[in-house]
């Protein structure tokens, strides 16, 4: 019996960590399944959970917290990997062939992937189609994708969101400890659950950046005859990445890696290339261009409270979303824009955080026909609200993709330029009503191909947003709205 190879790097680890780790070495090395008739894993997991706090506290009070939070996170993931490699798994008796698609990112990536579920349903009619996604999109995906997906598996977002190193001080050690213990238990259990099903084909369509991502971890532990993804390659038209992580760490997770040229291309078009290559290789068919959009069933399928929420809106309304997943994408001057919007059209303000709720309260005072639904809607309700909107206005966030997929007549999005080409601007072949307003200086960066550099979204003048609305949908503004509202606003404030 071959011993397991331990991949931890212990050269710079405190002695207490080494001792704790070596306490598991006997089990990990020899794969002893039973000790005195007791399953060793049932003993190992509680011991690991009890000893982790000691290791963590030692690390936090003797090293830099910011360094150790990431190191311990990575070490915990490796420990999970090793435990899973020796865990006895009782396979479920599969009565049909299954194919799964893994996509753990949230709204933007999901919206630009989901239309490709349909070709799988068409060309793999004798397969069960399974979607493994993020719990954030659960309710929406079940409603929107049920015609094409036979089974949904949603992984806990609090555990599968990207680790962001939010612990920056020793005072947060106990908070991080709670998180890591939850992470250990939940991720182990969810990966163990996934290992119980055999798939004929498993596909990870995520755009590779060279790092081992959440989706790669899931693919590593899935039981599948064919594991498919994209080979990691540098962008051929960007000069900012001089060093790339080798895909040697990732390639052994997969049986097939497609060589899709990584040029600056909109994500939906990248998926068209990837899935075209897949169907050509596995089915010998040429995949026709997949249409972009989102079809939702009538709102009558929603629960009564959701229907009442939608019925309470005016017949004509627009949606303003104040939030974004990243603070540097959030525009601070919507108050200067809202006061010039046509008040015959109701303004529905959406968001999620308490800060956005405070901002919405101010905007309601500036617009006589505005209401705030910040923190009052589910994702599914939010999508149905956007579906009926006459216009959409907001930051580079979920509203940009929902509005495009739902064919909102007028869409105005403010962007600092990050994720250019991959997520914006929308190609006219996909959405003709999508208008992006960038900082002025971003035009020069785009021309010089330094499109990875981002600028402060708040350098966009409110007048630029008004100018875009006036050009494409002047009826959304009050009559006699001045061209230079910045000057007008300044005079009134004085």
From TrEMBL:
GO cellular component: cytosol
InterPro entries referenced in this protein's UniProt entry, alphabetically: Glyco_trans_9 (IPR002201), LPS_LOS_Heptosyltrfase (IPR051199)
Gene3D superfamilies reported for this sequence: Glycogen Phosphorylase B
GO molecular function: ADP-heptose-lipopolysaccharide heptosyltransferase activity
Record keyword Cell division present: no
Pfam families for this protein: Glyco_transf_9
SUPFAM superfamilies referenced in this protein's UniProt entry, alphabetically: UDP-Glycosyltransferase/glycogen phosphorylase (SSF53756)
Domain of life: Bacteria
Annotated keywords: Glycosyltransferase, Membrane, Transferase, Transmembrane, Transmembrane helix
UniProt GO BP: lipopolysaccharide core region biosynthetic process
The keyword Glycosyltransferase is assigned to this record: yes
Transmembrane segments: 43-61
PANTHER family xref list: LIPOPOLYSACCHARIDE 1,2-N-ACETYLGLUCOSAMINETRANSFERASE-RELATED, TETRAACYLDISACCHARIDE 4'-KINASE-RELATED
Protein name: Glycosyltransferase 9 family protein
Originating organism: Helicobacter pylori
